[in-house]
Structure prediction request, 323 residues.
Amino acid sequence: RYVQWLKNNLKRNIMLISDTKKYIQANFQTEEELEKVVLNNYEYIFGPGSFYLPKKLIKTNDGAGTIPDGFAIDLVNKNWFIVEVELLRHSVWNHIAPQISKQIIAAQQNTTKKLILELAVIQYKENENVKEIFNDLSINEIDVRKILTEIIDKKPLIGLPIDNTSNDLEDWARTLNVNVKLWIVKKYVDFENANNIIFEFPEEYKPILDTEEEAENIYENKIKSYDVNLNDLISAGLLAIDEKITMNYKPKNGVLKTYTGIIQKDGSILLSGYEYSSLSYAALAGMKDAGSNRKTVNGWTSWKNDQGIYMSELRQKFLENQK
Prediction:
């Protein structure tokens, strides 16, 4: 039976190998399986400044109902998402496109926006992790409803976690009057134990398709912000090998700590004797050391150089120099 299960469910092109295990890429059995994975790990998709709202029925102006798989609010970039988790084997034209089209119309109704606002306020009041995100961004309680209203008054983005992509899906996404971000999530199963499963998420929250960035860069052939790394800053003279960068962090009810990283030749960060391949991984290591239980962090807005300039500002300067 297990051999038959392998034949029916495994994809043959990827294998992950550790000292004792082999993991082979596999299909998600149902959309609900992938939806649960996304719900439990949404920060790896929408970013460390995001929080997730549960699925709710929303309606178009004529009363047609639809239920997205959830909603996400990104406080850092001040965006909100209609979240629709999909499997590519579902037809783009008969399933994905008409479903999301209805959701876009329903999401822009005033009644929907009021619903999303109240769900977000409840999350702030009842979820300590969500409250910590607001605190990290120095958003005072008195301003919470105002900030959320400003975000939700914008057009929503479509957040589309999916197991694969296709030309038709991406071409259709580019025709919409709202921006679409598409992330691929992959599943791997232990070759000898189907109950032992791991998942692959995009590094640094990078979507495989971002129609907003495509529209901005299509005529200028600019590099996307997602694709900038520390090697680019080093090559541009904005950062130097062996340069020290610092991060201050104070967990809730904890003590403020300062961490110092050193830029390596390969663009990694040396911190406390370990090398980290990205700013976010290095920042997360520091936060864990300080006693935080955070899963994700935006390293670009965590680390700064000895002049007090954040890495995100250096990245923006790099991008501006590409014009």
